[in-house]
Amino acid sequence: MLPFILEKPRSTEDAIAAAAAGGRYIAGGTTLVDLMREEVERPERLVDINALPLGGIRVEGEDLVIGALARMADVAADPNVQRLQPLIAESLIEGASPQLRNMASMGGNLLQRVRCPYFRMLDVGCNKRMPGSGCAAIDGLNAGHAILGTSDHCVATHPSDVAVALVALDATMRVRGPQGERSFPVEELFRLPGDTPQIEHTLLPDELIMELRVPGRPRSSRARYLKVRDRASYEFALVSAAVDLLVEDDVIREIRLAVGGVGTRPWRLRDCEAALLGKRPGRQAFEDAAQLATQGARPLHHNHFKLELLPRTIVLALEMAGEIV
């Protein structure tokens, strides 16, 4: 690990000023510290934000509000989260080992770097690590890579599980920087790689995530998070699906659906949602809608199986949410 300067501001204003002067925010450090050890990331200044009052979890009206520094384990165990947004709790438990959940913050989880192995290999091309050097994954080992939202410059998937749930739930985020505060949907945080895959999100370098806000949902809706992976223990998703389903009078009245493990960002499936609205829940309706999920897919040599696995995962997640199985 290369030498660096560590600052520990006591106020949000001081933290933002330190970042504006060239510092990098660090909270749990579960991703950044590893990358610094491997010299993939080489920040000269770190801004430790753990002393900032951004770790609370509260209910405002029908909304659930989660501080950016709230630890994943605390959010997953919070009674209000489990009662109001069980999809978030389930995705957090599926998303990491207990040790990592105790350390990792919610804001940091959303901003974690990709888990493409070539990103960490300093002797091969990776446009995220070194723009213009190429993408070794395109012709390499790519079973775990994306089939949606890819470009000729990058095919890495976004690794977060809870981000998939937050996108499905229409969550928003509030951020603050030297120019003031702004709020926007979590879905808009993530950029497609295009020809600039090194720019992964829409935050300005000195903007700080303050909190996440998840709008209320009907109490009668049912939500599930299904994660398919190579092994049952801590592992990243090959395919995952977050479903929030409201059925009244045997008709689907509301449906929110997003998937992970297949896209270069958490992937909202609005065409699938539209195909299910007003339909009676059941295997045939679920299968017909799920086939729309692979529209525009660009499979690679080793991940063609995701074209079949993705619709099957969606169908099973819908059945689990609807308690059909």
From TrEMBL:
Signal peptide: none
SMART domains in alphabetical order: CO_deh_flav_C
Keyword Translocase: no
Keyword terms: FAD, Flavoprotein
Domain FAD-binding PCMH-type: 1-219
Gene3D superfamilies: 3.30.465.10, CO dehydrogenase flavoprotein, C-terminal domain (3.30.390.50), Uridine Diphospho-n-acetylenolpyruvylglucosamine Reductase, domain 2 (3.30.43.10)
Keyword Flavoprotein: yes
Record's protein name: Xanthine dehydrogenase family protein subunit M
Organism: Rhizobium sullae
